[in-house]
Design goal:
- The protein is α+β, with helices and mostly antiparallel strands.
- It has three domains: about 1-230, Aminohydrolase, N-terminal nucleophile (Ntn) domain (Glutamine Phosphoribosylpyrophosphate, subunit 1, domain 1), CATH 3.60.20.10; about 245-385 and about 455-525, HUPs (Rossmann fold, 3-Layer(aba) Sandwich), CATH 3.40.50; about 540-600, no CATH class.
- The strands form five sheets. It has a six-stranded antiparallel sheet with strand order 3-5-1-11-10-12, with helices on one face. Strands 6-7-8-9-13-14 form a six-stranded antiparallel sheet, covered by helices on one side.
- The longest helix has 18 residues, at about 245-260.
- The chain is globular and about 75 Å long.
- It starts with a strand and ends with a helix.
């Protein structure tokens, strides 16, 4: 896990003495890689070492092979690589290459990756199991190759000018390369009205974009022309034909291997443990392969939002190692600007601030550098409440008795978890949002829960769920030089899960059915748990803090970002100015408006 930066000048060579803007682009993400920082310059047009047309920079967080010989840019013959992420199956790939006569000078996954490209070209990237954003300079072909992992776990941004192509791990690296800094109002409107983040390859900054997930971009250095190749397609789903019992065994084996290979590290590894099904499953499997692995849990004295009782049950029955971290003293308003700065965009809710605070405590109170997380489990096995509703709608097609059965079993969970303001975004035809904004709100058809479950799972992986979750997982952790690994986003698990019949994933109101049956070591209190709590936060209480009024006042000022761009309706402005909010108030909408203003002020927009 690291931070990368690259620059290509297509039209001319530059003076090696004039490198300040490139140094700034690598220094600004020093938090991502405190162990080594290197910026190198290459001249692929002539033999003059005082000139360059390519710059490659790397800030290293040492995880695998801690020696200096594994620092980057890593070079071999006519090739150089800068790499952010991890290739978890690098040991197996290394053995394949050794059998073919390839020699290695380090034990790093970086050298495996570069040798794999030298041996097989970019077509080999589909063999990778991991999370990555990397660039390979291929002097033989006079090309530069960029690649991003299947789910976009690792970030990779770029911008272009008439003469150059510039890329990096965070959008903030590229801002000083822009001729003019402007907001992307289209994405901002989607964010305000639909709570969308990272749903496309644009950003909140005009002219800064993302390399798409599961994509390899090859740039010809002679002309600047490039070609994008999608090396993996999530829609290539193979329906599972075997029995449920066979599926349970196969899923359990895949999950165990997904966790096992993500324990590969030369520095300490831990796990985020909420007490929910996903993180608890990771905890018991990880403990099997790394005894006494440290789990850390955020707990609260508030019974309505704390899952401490489930954490305690896991400790009692499985004797795992847990460190508890209290969230009760947190005032999220005081960390808000810092969190938004590291995310380069407004966040969706205060849960991101809580997560940021958790990463800070992990850094300060443990010796961990690598952390496992349960993100991706809900999308693969229908863990969210919306999937429960969709399952009821699909049951209707199978007959009246199926409909009644699913409704009966699902009702207790839906009644417990229901949030009107959160749910109405899925029923946009019944609850139009035009009264809140001055612009028309257009909800994409694929966002509706009237679609079938597998289609919705796919777009959640691609647009609506996994990308924003991975975004804040990466930025919050890397702000403190911590690496987050996500076993549920092992592509083998995702492909397997999508191919399963719906009833293997959700039945009689119980989601993640196959996971519950596959992980035998879980306490029954966790494996039979039906209600999902998630990373709950006391939103209404946060708005009672004095800082809330101060932030709302900034939003209501005439020179605020929403005011200057005429985004909010007068009715909504009036509601915000009243200073008193009922329990039915849409606090998440109020948060987004405030977060947008903080972002705009932080980045001078």
């Amino acid at each position: 896990m690291c931070g990368i930066y690259g620059y290509i000048n297509h039209s001319k060579l530059e003076d090696i003495k004039l490198i300040d803007r490139h140094k700034k682009s690598i220094d600004i993400i020093s938090h991502r890689g405190p162990d080594n920082s290197t910026l190198k310059f290459y001249n692929t047009k002539s033999n003059d070492n005082d000139l360059f047309n390519i710059a490659l920079g790397h800030n290293r967080l040492s995880i695998i092979d801690l020696n200096e010989s594994a620092n980057q840019p890593f070079e071999k013959d006519d090739y150089a690589i800068i790499f952010n992420g991890e290739i978890f199956n690098y040991i197996e790939l290394r053995e394949e290459l050794i059998k073919k006569g390839v020699r290695f000078n380090t034990d790093s996954d970086t050298e495996v990756l570069l040798n794999l490209y030298i041996d097989q070209g970019s077509k080999a990237f589909n063999k990778l199991n991991g999370m990555w954003a990397f660039s390979i300079l291929d002097k033989k072909k006079n090309e530069l190759v960029l690649s991003r992992d299947r789910f976009g776990i690792k970030p990779l941004y770029y911008t272009e000018t008439k003469d150059s192509f510039i890329f990096g791990s965070e959008a903030k690296q590229l801002l000083h390369h822009l001729e003019e800094l402007k907001p992307n109002l289209s994405n901002i409107k989607d964010y305000l009205s639909l709570a969308f983040l990272d749903h496309n390859n644009d950003t909140f900054f005009d002219s800064i974009y993302k390399i798409p997930a599961a994509t390899t971009r090859t740039i010809k250095l002679s002309s600047g022309q490039y070609n994008d190749e999608i090396y993996w397609n999530i829609n290539n789903i193979t329906p599972y034909k075997e029995s449920y019992n066979e599926a349970v065994i196969e899923y359990g084996a895949l999950f165990e291997d997904a966790v096992k290979i993500r324990l590969r590290s030369d520095v300490p590894v831990g796990n985020t443990l909420s007490g929910g099904l996903d993180s608890s499953s990771i905890a018991v499997v990880a403990d099997k392969h790394t005894p006494n692995l440290l789990n850390f849990s955020v707990v609260s004295a508030e019974k309505g939002i704390s899952e401490e009782v489930y954490v305690d049950e896991l400790v009692k029955e499985n004797n795992i190692n847990v460190k508890k971290i209290s969230s009760d003293a947190l005032n999220p308003w005081k960390m808000l600007e810092e969190v938004i700065y590291h995310n380069d965009e407004p966040i969706l809710s205060f849960s991101a601030v809580n997560h940021f605070n958790m990463m800070k405590k992990v850094k300060n109170e443990t010796s961990l550098t690598v952390v496992l997380s349960g993100q991706g489990g809900d999308e693969g096995l229908c863990g969210y409440g919306k999937y429960t509703i969709m399952n009821i709608l699909e049951a209707k097609k199978k007959g009246f008795s199926n409909l009644i059965s699913e409704m009966y079993y699902a009702f207790p969970r839906l009644a417990k978890e229901f949030n009107f303001n959160l749910s109405k975004r899925y029923f946009n035809k019944l609850f139009p949002q035009k009264e809140n904004f001055t612009f028309k709100v257009n909800t994409p058809k694929d966002f509706s829960i009237s679609n079938n479950i597998v289609d919705r799972q796919v777009v959640d992986y691609q647009k609506y769920s996994v990308p924003p979750l991975c975004h804040y997982e990466d930025r919050n952790a890397m702000a403190y030089a911590l690496e987050i690994r996500l076993p549920f986003l092992d592509y083998r698990l995702v492909e397997f899960s999508l191919g399963l019949p719906t009833e293997f994933k959700i039945k009689k109101g119980v989601s993640k059915r196959i996971l519950r049956d596959a992980i035998k070591a879980l306490p029954k209190r966790i494996s039979q748990r039906k209600v999902k709590m998630g990373f709950n936060i006391p939103e209404r209480e946060y708005f009672q803090l004095p800082e809330a009024k101060q932030f709302i006042t900034k939003v209501l000022e005439k020179d605020s970002f929403p005011s200057r761009h005429n985004l909010l309706s007068q009715d909504l402005v009036k509601t915000l100015s009243q200073d008193k909010f009922s329990k039915k108030a849409d606090f998440r909408l109020f948060q987004r408006i405030i977060f947008l203003e903080v972002w705009a002020r932080k980045f001078n927009l």
